[in-house]
Amino acid sequence: MTTFDELVEEGARAPVEGWDFAWFAGRATEERPPWGYARLIGRRMAGAAAGLDVQTGGGEVLATIPTPPPVLAATESWPPNVALARQRLAPLGGVVHEVADDAALPFPDGTFDLAVSRHPTLTVWDEIARVLRPGGAYLSQQIGNGTMRELTVAMMGPVPVGTARDTGRAVAAAEAAGLTVVDLREVALRAEFFDIGAVVHFLRKVIWTVPGFTVEAYRDQLRDLHERIRAEGSFVALSRRFLIEAVKR
């Protein structure tokens, strides 16, 4: 049987670049939202003249679109992901720009008729509206309030649920930027961890779950959770997502 220290070491060594979660196969699972984000953007990009993926990560999702538009661009802030995205999106003709998540987008007004974003750290709604053409759409799958709260509490103890990712705030911000929200859906999804190595890797990769996480700082909590997983077979948390589509007036 693999020991606690060995599992933690595996999770601590696993690479965190990009948003490919293949490493978790057999070690953790997460339900997928029912709307099928990758299929949605695949259909929408096929009908677009100019498309933009904001905070593309390593380009993993955008690279799955079957038919790219004539103009395809993406932004990403983390240099290791920028390099991965450029490799993945080059066959589609995609141009990747290194841009801070909270910075102005490096495109002229009205450049795109479709902008998409999967799990942005934040959405700069005024910039989204600026680079969209009139009638253009922004389609985004976002992380909802309280996502993976059970894991946060297991590591940090009781903490208040934030409101930064409230859907009402997203709608209000979109409307204030000159967009009309035409679709809004929410869902809670079951996530299950089968060993503590998967927990360590997840916390290193999805850094907002436990801000400032390191193995050294949280070793006692990790050991407690390891014993719980061994006793109960897994650790379950809820991953919260919402889909929002907004059209430029």
From TrEMBL:
<keyword id="KW-0808">Transferase</keyword>
<dbReference type="InterPro" id="IPR013216">
    <property type="entry name" value="Methyltransf_11"/>
</dbReference>
<feature type="domain" description="Methyltransferase type 11">
    <location>
        <begin position="52"/>
        <end position="138"/>
    </location>
</feature>
<protein>
    <submittedName>
        <fullName>Class I SAM-dependent methyltransferase</fullName>
    </submittedName>
</protein>
<dbReference type="GO" id="GO:0008168">
    <property type="term" value="F:methyltransferase activity"/>
</dbReference>
<dbReference type="InterPro" id="IPR052939">
    <property type="entry name" value="23S_rRNA_MeTrnsfrase_RlmA"/>
</dbReference>
<dbReference type="GO" id="GO:0032259">
    <property type="term" value="P:methylation"/>
</dbReference>
<keyword id="KW-0489">Methyltransferase</keyword>
<dbReference type="InterPro" id="IPR029063">
    <property type="entry name" value="SAM-dependent_MTases_sf"/>
</dbReference>
<dbReference type="Pfam" id="PF08241">
    <property type="entry name" value="Methyltransf_11"/>
</dbReference>
